[in-house]
User: What shape does this take?
Amino acid sequence: MGKSSNAVRAQDTKDVVPSYIKSGSNRGSEAVTTEDITIPRIEIMQALSPCLDEKKPEFIDGGKQGHLYNSVTREDYGDMVVVCPVLFRSQFLVWRDRKKGGGFRGAYDTAEEAKEAVAGTEDPENWSIIPTAQNLVLVVHEDGTTEEAMISMARTKMKVSRQWNALVRINGNDRFSRLYNVFSVDDANSQGQDYKNLGIANAGFPVESVYLQAESLYKQVSSGIREMKMDSSDVGGGEETPNTEF
Assistant: This one.
């Protein structure tokens, strides 16, 4: 039996930093560059999502169908988040059939590059090329803090992406000059199967600090200083549940 009274417990990331922790120190991560970091995805918890299965390591305690979550921190955002969009990009994502083991081959800017990637695999017949709208955003929390994330929109989410782009154009100015609510809505596929999709609505203007942060991130990515490397953990075939295959 473990000695619980002497157990070393990790501080929750949302707690106040203990006085013995050196604030601003980066020791141990000196060699980490932007090439070594992926951007978390914001995903929807579907009925068959691993994060709702207590037997799976991806399980998120308290999660519910329709909730949004962070693929890296596993934070449950509830049924809505506020984001400041930074950059939109169309890409072709290559996914392996989940029934064949799943896997993510990469994100490519052209269909030709994606086809070459599939041709280079040992089992090209098990890989799919999925046109995907990639939305780099800042998640804006109630306390004013932010975090980078990717909202990856494929298949039926593509229509939501087009609506979002239309809304951005109507609003005018920089893409990052407005905030938007991102939430889950009920939808159904062509077979009449119910699932959760994304909804987008205006949420006002960002405060200056958020706007400047988004502007800085935009400049870094658009200039090539940083890459939009999306986290691909616990996703196979581009979606989390079979009932979103159309």
Residues 43-91+132-228 form one domain. The first strand starts at residue 42 and ends at 44.
